[in-house]
């Protein structure tokens, strides 16, 4: 374990230069890093390797969803980059998740988590798909499926963390975005939770983007969050 901090900084930047400008101010003992679809599509595996080589735990947030064999091979390729954690879409089904986890069964393989029902999709999207469930029921159902497939946890909102922690027990990772320190702007997040509240709700890791990446002093912002959680 490189850091005790639950903070994962979301590197939502459009270029390597902007990413490195921030990362050079940080160190692996204060936080982990998340590389998502925009940055990966622009900068590719070489940037991920560079962050890993700099000593950071990297969460590769590409949310794989495809036929089981393809997802398993993609997970293997991500593991070969040396990432700490990666994810799939639970909607890909239990077989897809099982094959993905099996592809990562060697020691030292990254953690594998799943996205359940995206917070940007609500009741209207479920109704349009003809799925007779509420978003909360979907989250619980998909989290159960994720756990049955042997994955390490899910991405969920910090509001959902309370009930998921009850359902899934203590060892299942709950990785929560939508986090805002009390004095930070909400940006476009509808429902936000403070770092302290998220941890009280049962979060394992906090994904935090703009409050850190847009801060005039990102390092200080992370250290303030870390010390608020001790
Ligand atoms: O800047 P901010 O803290 O809002 O960034 C949150 C990060 O978490 C972004 O990378 C976003 O894509 C991701 N995320 C989210 N809500 C979800 C799933 C992922 O905000 N439901």
List the helices and strands and how they pair.
Layout: E1 7-10, H1 16-23, E2 32-35, H2 37-53, E3 58-64, H3 68-80, E4 85-89, H4 94-103, E5 111-115, H5 123-129, H6 135-148, E6 153-155, H7 158-168, E7 173-176, H8 195-201, E8 205-208, H9 210-213, H10 218-228
Parallel strand pairs: 1-2, 1-8, 2-3, 3-4, 4-5, 5-6, 6-7, 7-8
Helix pairs in contact: 3-4, 6-7, 7-8
The structure holds cytidine-5'-monophosphate.
- Overall residue-averaged pLDDT value: 96
Supply the CATH class: Alpha Beta
> What compounds are bound to the protein?
cytidine-5'-monophosphate
Radius of gyration: 17 Å
- Domains, number: 1
Helix content: 40-55%
Content of β-strand: 15-25%
Describe this structure in words.
The chain has 230 residues and is an alpha/beta fold. The protein has one domain (7-228): Aldolase class I (TIM Barrel), CATH 3.20.20.70. Helices cover 44% and strands 16% of the residues. The chain has helices at 16-23, 37-53, 68-80, 94-103, 123-129, 135-148, 158-168, 195-201, 210-213, 218-228; strands spanning 7-10, 32-35, 58-64, 85-89, 111-115, 153-155, 173-176, 205-208. An eight-stranded parallel beta barrel has the order 1-2-3-4-5-6-7-8, surrounded by seven helices. Helix 3 packs parallel to helix 4 (94-103) and helix 7 packs parallel to helix 8. 42% of the residues are buried. The model has no long low-confidence stretch (mean pLDDT 96). It binds cytidine-5'-monophosphate. The site of cytidine-5'-monophosphate has 14 residues, from strand 8. Cytidine-5'-monophosphate binds next to strand 8.
């Amino acid at each position: 374990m490189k850091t005790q901090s639950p903070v994962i900084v979301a590197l939502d930047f459009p270029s390597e230069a902007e990413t490195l400008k921030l990362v050079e101010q940080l160190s692996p003992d204060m936080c982990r890093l998340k590389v998502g679809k925009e940055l990966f599509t622009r900068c590719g595996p070489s940037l991920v390797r560079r962050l890993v080589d700099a000593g950071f735990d990297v969460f590769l947030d590409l949310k794989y969803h495809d036929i089981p064999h393809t997802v398993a091979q993609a997970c293997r390729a991500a593991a070969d980059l040396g990432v700490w954690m990666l994810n799939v879409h639970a909607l890909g089904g239990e077989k897809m998740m099982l094959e993905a986890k099996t592809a990562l069964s060697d020691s030292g393989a990254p953690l594998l988590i799943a996205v359940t029902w995206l917070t940007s999709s609500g009741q209207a999207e479920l109704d349009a798909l003809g799925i007779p469930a509420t978003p909360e029921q979907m989250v619980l159902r998909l989290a159960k499926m994720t756990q049955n497939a042997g994955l390490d946890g899910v991405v969920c909102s910090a509001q959902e963390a309370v009930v998921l922690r009850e359902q899934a027990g203590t060892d299942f990772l709950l990785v929560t975005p939508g986090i805002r320190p009390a004095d930070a702007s909400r940006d476009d997040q509808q429902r936000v939770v403070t770092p302290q509240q998220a941890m009280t709700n049962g979060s394992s890791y906090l994904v935090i983007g703009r409050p850190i990446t847009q801060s005039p002093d990102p390092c200080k912002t992370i250290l303030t969050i870390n010390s608020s959680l001790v």
